[in-house]
Design brief:
The complex is a heterodimer of chains A (280) and B (225). Chain A has 280 residues and is α/β, with parallel strands linked by helices. Helix content of chain A is 54%, strand content 12%. The chains are: A alpha/beta (280), B mainly alpha (225).
């Protein structure tokens, strides 16, 4: 069997092993390659940065166990960013698991909060937890929060939460930040909050979903988007708070380089093999 | 050993178990799958029950009897478990689907239809705008299956196909990147200095266990391609 034939018939487990090494190497030996800030990320960051102090914003925490490593670092930095500016935050999640991971993001952000920043539960932020029903649930939540939630994630009755005294529907928020992860739920926010209530929105999704949402950005329904680890890394970079996402973005670069090399090599070998078969 | 570190080590072990499916289906990967499904199922049930208790059962107990309708409809969903009563479950399903569709369609026309069309009507004063308009029109025209691909339409069809292939290429690339990010997210935790030695030990144990299983033919070796 020729070397070319062997390469074309390569067991995929060897490719998995190579990929594992390419992804693990930059984590064990951190390297930082030059990185440009993408336009979508910059727009999203500037949107967050333009929220005036004293405003109340809504954050949908849609990151789960699989997607938290990608979006979590960015969400944590955004919480620090917004609370640091004096913006108040109302969190909710449309998934059971994601509601729990939103608690992790809040806890990590509070631990990283610079001293002197007001970050009191119920006053500066509140986590309303899980809202079931998918898009219908979002619609009900947007129209009347008290119709779907009687207490926050920690069991405090809504009537006892000062931050929610004058908040009961989507139009009471200055902006929405939809950290949808891989939920595919960003259109819920656009359909049930942006369009009927006119509240501006930005968001975060996993890398694979970015192409799905670019039409919403082009139409102005979405103010930029943070895509995957890179989006989080760019938020960290723009906030001058380098963290986990920046290191992961470098590992993605190494994996991408190996993948591109394998795709090109596979195509070259395929065309050579086809030509040889044609000659014979 | 604190609970956080214990969680990281357990996560590392379970991840290795899940990734071992890449070598081939094996008892460890099966165990990991079942463990994951069991934990997730239990967690989702507990969280949803808590929501129902807080937002429906408690109000009924406090005299707000309107929520009985919601509880009744929820219970009717379980009638699927008995074939003779299956018809009962169709009412809550119809209500849920109807309400969901109604709410979605209410704004879909504005957000997903008119909004997108408006965004495509652009002044042709930059390369981006020209590409956007040509790409949208030709890609949409590609799906006119009733027209013969001849004459001027042949070129529209071919241009549309090029734009579609470019879009699929971008989506494929982004999907590959997303898969990397999933693995990297786990590797970051598995290779933390305080967890790395446990990860290496687990890798060794899995390799020895699977090696023994394949050698003694107690586990069927997946031959690959």
């Amino acid at each position: 069997m020729s070397l070319m034939k062997k390469l074309l018939d390569l067991d995929q487990r060897i490719i998995y092993a190579l990929m594992f090494i390419a992804l693990a190497f930059p984590i064990l030996n951190p390297v930082v390659l030059p990185m440009d800030i993408q336009e979508y990320s910059r727009v999203s960051f500037e949107f967050a940065d333009s929220i005036p102090a004293g405003s109340v914003v809504l954050i949908e925490g849609g990151l789960g166990a699989a997607t938290y490593p990608q979006g979590g670092p960015g969400l944590e930095v955004q919480i620090v960013h917004l609370l640091g500016k004096g913006v108040k935050i109302v969190f909710f999640s449309i998934g059971t698991e994601t509601a729990a991971w939103t608690v992790t993001a809040i806890d990590n952000a509070l631990a990283a909060m610079p001293s002197g920043v007001a970050a009191e539960d119920g006053v500066n932020w509140v986590h309303l937890g899980y809202v079931p029903g998918g898009e219908s649930g979002v619609a009900a939540f947007a129209n009347d929060i008290r119709s779907v939630k009687s207490e926050d994630h920690y069991g405090t009755p809504i009537a006892q939460i000062p931050l929610l005294a004058n908040i009961n529907k989507a139009s009471d928020f200055t902006a929405v930040f939809w950290w949808g992860g891989s939920e595919g739920s960003i259109p819920y926010g656009i359909r049930q909050i942006v369009t009927p209530f006119g509240v501006p929105m930005t968001g975060m999704c996993t890398t694979n979903e970015v192409p799905n949402y670019t039409p919403y950005i082009n139409s102005g329904q979405l103010h930029g988007i943070l895509g995957g680890v890179r989006g989080s890394a760019e938020y960290e970079y723009l906030m001058d708070m380098p963290g986990l996402a920046l290191g992961q973005a470098m590992a993605t670069n190494f994996g991408g380089l190996l993948w591109a090399f394998l795709v090109v090599l596979g195509n070259i070998l395929y065309f050579i093999a086809r030509k040889e078969e044609g000659d014979n | 050993m604190d609970s956080y570190l214990l969680g990281l080590i357990a996560g590392s072990f379970v991840s290795i178990g899940a990734y071992s499916v890449l070598i081939g289906d094996n008892p460890l990967s099966k165990f990991t799958e079942h463990l994951y499904m069991g934990i997730l199922g239990g967690f989702i049930f507990a969280t949803n029950w808590n929501y129902v208790r807080t937002n429906a059962v408690n109000p009924v107990l406090q005299g707000n009897f309107i929520y009985i309708i919601a509880i009744l409809l929820s219970v009717m969903l379980f009638s699927r478990l008995k074939t003779e009563w299956l018809w009962l479950s169709r009412y809550p399903v119809a209500l849920t689907v109807g309400a969901g569709l109604g709410l979605a369609i209410r704004t879909t026309v504005m957000s997903d239809f008119l909004g997108q069309i408006t965004a495509t009507i652009l002044p042709l004063n930059s390369l981006d705008n020209i590409l956007m308009v040509i790409g949208t029109v030709t890609s949409a025209a590609y799906f006119i299956f009733t027209a013969q691909t001849e004459g001027p339409y042949k070129y529209v069809n071919k241009t549309g196909r090029i734009f579609l292939l470019a879009a699929f290429g971008v989506t494929y690339g982004q999907t590959v990147s997303f898969r990397f990010e999933l693995v990297i997210g786990r590797l970051v935790d598995m290779l933390r200095p305080e967890v790395a030695n446990y990860t290496y030990l687990m890798l060794l144990l899995v390799a020895l266990g699977l090696g023994y299983g394949y050698r003694t033919k107690k586990i069927k070796w997946y031959k690959g391609r």
